[in-house]
Design brief:
By secondary structure, the chain is mainly alpha-helical. Helices cover about 45% and strands about 5% of the residues.
């Protein structure tokens, strides 16, 4: 496996798709990186030479985009700011509910977790 920006990218995939395993790099950015590094996008990672891989590393560092740890901490700080300010979105994050206006009556199981039924206990006599 080739290691770029602290991430082991898959060896048996084409370079453009393999770069998408890095947080913050999508397909269009990966294609731009390959173009600037003069690497053929049809080649697989295992077919690349060490010189080409180092060129890809240089291009990623030269582009002014946040990837991996920087991007994750940037996003975490934004969410923390929303929580501290007491914004609606921050409150939704704090409660573990969807923050972008989705319905919660039937959906949003990903955010809310496993369904818990309330109020079906034994009736007191």
């Amino acid at each position: 496996m080739a290691r770029i920006v602290g991430v082991d990218i898959p060896r048996n995939k084409k370079i453009a798709f393999s770069l998408c395993y890095i947080h913050g790099i999508g397909l269009s950015t990966a294609l731009k990186i390959c173009e600037k590094a003069k690497v053929d996008t049809a080649k697989r990672v295992q077919e690349l030479t060490e010189k080409q891989i180092s060129k890809v590393r240089e291009v990623i560092s030269s582009l002014e985009i946040n990837v991996e740890g920087e991007l994750r901490s940037f996003n975490a700080m934004n969410i923390k700011r929303l929580k501290d300010v007491g914004a609606y979105k921050g409150i939704r994050h704090r409660r573990g509910l969807p923050a972008n206006g989705q319905r919660t009556k039937t959906n949003s199981r990903t955010r809310k977790g496993k369904k818990r039924t309330i109020g079906l206990g034994k009736k007191a006599i």
